[in-house]
Amino acid sequence: MHRHELPVPTTAHGAVWVFVVALGVLLSPSTSRADVVGPPPDDCPAGTEARSSHCGSYCVPRLCAGDGDCDDGQTCQPRQLCRDSIECQGGWDPDAAPTIIETANQSCAAGDCPAGTCESTDVCAEPPQAFEVDQGCGCRYPSRDGREADPLKVIALLALTLAALGRRRAVR
């Protein structure tokens, strides 16, 4: 026999191995449990940080008292956020007190929150720009509180201003 050849099992020996493998497959559990944590959300409002844990996916406000609490390029600014909390009970110690996680999953510029309460919260965020070009998709003009103005309203206001200036020159 050459080194690279495996011995061919006898018929009885092969049948025993087939039986053992089949028995292992049949007796193995049909489902398995895993310690899985889902991905963090990808739509957190400005001034929050996306996180996930065994309690779910959520956005945590990046609270600040001044610009010194923020990373480079960010400033401490008030944002209207839907503030809420979730209670998370760990599985390791069922007698332990639950952890309370403060969340801010949405902005609430209109004052409406599907969950929690709308609160003005000082958070670290990128400072608003005068005009922000969105890769050729359109212009956005953020207001002081972080909400974006409707581009059609901005265009209508600009058209009315130009019409008023043109009329004023025609009267002179």
Structure at a glance:
The chain has 172 residues and is an alpha+beta fold.
What does this protein look like?
- This protein is α+β, with helices and mostly antiparallel strands.
- It folds into two domains: 38-127, no CATH class; 128-172, no CATH class.
- Helices cover 22% and strands 28% of the residues.
- The protein has helices at residues 11-27, 151-171, and strands at residues 48-53, 56-61, 75-88, 99-107, 117-125, 132-133, 139-140.
- It has a three-stranded antiparallel sheet with strand order 4-3-5, with no helix packed on it. A two-stranded antiparallel sheet has the order 1-2. Strands 6-7 form a two-stranded antiparallel sheet.
- Strand 6 and strand 7 (139-140) form a beta hairpin.
- It is elongated.
- The model has no long low-confidence stretch (mean pLDDT 76).
Name its key features.
single chain; 172 residues; alpha+beta; 2 domains; two-stranded antiparallel sheet; 2 helices
What's the layout of helices and strands?
Elements: H1 11-27, E1 48-53, E2 56-61, E3 75-88, E4 99-107, E5 117-125, E6 132-133, E7 139-140, H2 151-171
Antiparallel strand pairs: 1-2, 3-4, 3-5, 6-7
